[in-house]
Design goal:
The longest helix is centred in the N-terminal third of the chain and has 10 residues. The chain starts with 16 loop residues before the first helix and ends in a 6-residue tail after the last helix. By secondary structure, it is of the alpha+beta class. The protein is about 15% helix and about 30% strand. Helix 1 packs parallel to helix 3. A hairpin with a 2-residue loop joins strand 9 and strand 10. Strands 5, 6, 7, 8, 9 and 10 form a 6-stranded antiparallel beta sheet that branches. Strands 1-2-3-4 form a 4-stranded antiparallel beta sheet.
């Protein structure tokens, strides 16, 4: 299964066109290795990465859904398929990446030094007019080194794509989180000066 593979089950197909195209254009090698006890695939990429002619993207093998995480079945089907059929985790040294199933946290329990967060400069705990999510129903799934995060809503709708773009102390509703993931994932593997 790959993000562009039409045979991919669960709706991952075509949802990440930018990193898929970038990997097609810039990959010059693929290595199988270990990080501790886990197997990883390392995509070697050519380009201009701050004066270096190469970079890499580290991805872990697909994983079964963990029985120990009770909300996994409430994640959208396509997101679950990404982790069970493609890669459980992606990590770019430039921009972070997709978090592994085991590392996904409910926003309500996420440990962040800026907590409690504010939304548009207002504290949602004290402002009834602020549109904010139920933090116990939102899961952090992407994180980068610059405090940019993408979250998915827990839902009974398996086809849901609703989520939140969380940057530092603000959150914006996303009707479809896949385009935001697409742009963040390609940032981690694109040229930079």
């Amino acid at each position: 299964c790959s993000p562009s593979n039409t045979g991919c089950r669960g709706g991952v197909s075509g949802r990440l066109p930018l990193p898929t195209q970038r990997l097609r254009e810039a990959s010059f090698a693929l290595y199988l290795g270990r990080r501790g006890d886990e197997l990883v695939l390392v995509y070697a990429l050519s380009g201009n990465f701050g004066g270096k002619p190469y970079s890499y993207l580290t991805c872990t093998a697909p994983q079964p859904e963990p029985a120990s995480v009770d909300y996994i079945t409430q994640l959208p089907t396509a997101l679950r398929a990404f982790h069970t059929q493609l890669h459980d985790e992606t990590e770019s040294w430039l921009h972070g990446g997709m978090m592994a199933f085991a590392d996904m946290e409910l926003v309500s329990s996420y440990d962040d030094p800026r907590w409690p967060m504010t939304i548009d400069g207002r504290d949602p705990q004290f402002d009834p007019d602020v549109d904010y999510p139920d933090f116990s129903r939102v899961v952090l799934m992407f994180n980068d080194a610059a405090s940019s995060r993408v979250c998915a809503n827990l839902t009974d709708d398996p086809d849901s794509t609703a989520g939140w773009d969380w940057f530092e102390g603000s959150m914006d509703r996303l009707p479809d989180f896949w385009p935001r993931l697409d742009s963040w994932l390609v940032n981690g593997i694109s040229d930079w000066a």
